[in-house]
Amino acid sequence: MTTEQSFLEPGQNTLLDLKLDELKRELSDMHAPDMEAALRARFRNTKPDAQPRPRLWWMPPLALAATIAMMSWVIRGPMPDATSLVSLAPPTTTIEGDRDPGPFLALQPLDRIASESGTRVVATEFPRALLADWGLPVSPDRAGEPVRAEMLYSADGEPLAVRLLN
Amino acid sequence: MTMPPKDLQPELALLARMKKGDEDAFAELYRRHRDAVYRLAMLYSGSTAHAADVTQETFVHFMTQPHQYDPLRGTLAAWLCGIARNLARKAVGGREDATDPEVMADDTSLHESHIDRDTPLDRILKGEVAEQVRRAVAGLKPHYRDILILCELSELSYAEAAQVAGIDIGTVRSRLSRARAQLAQRLAPHDLGAKEAV
User: Fold this and answer.
1) Contact assignment for B56 to A35 by CB distance below 8 Å
2) Looking at domain B8-197, does it have CATH number 3.40.1080.10?
3) How many domains does chain A divide into?
4) Per-residue pLDDT tens for B74-104?
5) B195/A contact by beta carbon, under 8 A
6) Inside any domain, residue A155
7) Is residue A113 domain-resident?
8) 3-class secondary-structure state, position A149
9) Cα separations (Å) of A154 from A77, A159, B38?
10) What pLDDT digit, counting tens, does each position of A121-140 carry?
11) Is A15 close to B184, i.e. CB distance below 8 A?
């Protein structure tokens, strides 16, 4: 026996264990009377009670339904207006590293961008005045300054979206 | 007393078959556990007739309510012992209910009225030492005897004994420690007698 707190000396514990072992040895020679035939007969005539439903049986199907509803809402939610200059969801990684520089700004209609395959992101630097060509506001005082940006190009080199890094 | 092995998988497979109505699976589980259940019932009741009744009732309960056994909460052996223990205590009656906290706090006062002087088990146990221990165990207060039988003589783990007795493991440990101390105290006169005889 191992207890956290024993009221007995180690020698007393050992002596007691020996005595308990003696009783266990005697008990091990005792066997239950044979009642297998009677129990078998009883078993044949007994139908086990049906297992009751667990108390929270409705939780898993409810969770599944909620998940499906949530996914449907996310997938079928209203798309942003393709004609306006809107931001796109940023990619999970950027060329610049882990720092999140903000969303891409679409330079082409969203459905056009979505249909493009083989797009690539390129880090570049260009005069700030170029932003005016894409409809972005540019301060005349800073028109000559260079701007660092990431460009999303189509497979044939057409700029699709831009993300300013500073 | 050796409990059946605690590898649950074979027993769970038998249990699954039994639940589908497989009589042989039930018989196999009965053969595996009948002796442990019977011995436990003997220790509680001290009577072969009562122990046989309790064993039969335990397995009838098992065959009719198998879904009550939850493998996550312990072994089938421990669950069956728990049923047998409850049935045996019910059969023995009110004397098992002496668990008043004030009485429990007084560890030195032993209740001679709880000692079974002459039971069929006395006559079955041939060994003198075993009989002395058996009588000393029977003389323990019910809440101590209960844990001693479960942990020491039926070899349930502390967790299983806690589950069966409906108490926490810490209480099982402390009760077992006190039960052993009381048992040693009760057996001490026999040790002295043996020394004087030598």
Assistant:
1) yes
2) no
3) 1
4) 889 999 999 999 999 887 764 444 444 334 4
5) no
6) yes
7) yes
8) strand
9) 27, 6, 82
10) 888 888 888 878 777 777 77
11) yes
Beta-bridge partners for A150: A123, A163
pTM of the predicted model as reported, rounded to 2 decimal places: 0.57
Which of B23, B34, B176 is closest, CB to CB, to A44? Answer: B23
What does A80-148 look like in DSSP terms, one character per residue? PPTTS--EEPPPSSBTTBSS----EEESS-HHHHHH--S-EEEEEEEETTHHHHTT----GGGTTSEEE
The answer to the question of residue A44 being in a domain is: no
**Is A43 in Cβ contact with B63 (below 8 Å)?**
yes
Domain extent for A92: 87-164
Give the Cα separation of A163 and A141 in Å (integer): 21
| C-alpha to C-alpha distance for B64 and B72, rounded to whole angstroms | 20
Tell if the CB–CB gap between A46 and B184 is shorter than 8 Å.
Answer: no
Interface of A with B (CB under 8 A): 1, 3-8, 12-13, 15-16, 19-20, 22-28, 30-33, 35-36, 38-40, 42-44, 46, 48-49, 51-52
Q: Does B68 touch chain A (CB under 8 A)?
A: no
Task: Please determine, for the modelled complex, whether the ipTM score is greater than 0.95.
Answer: no
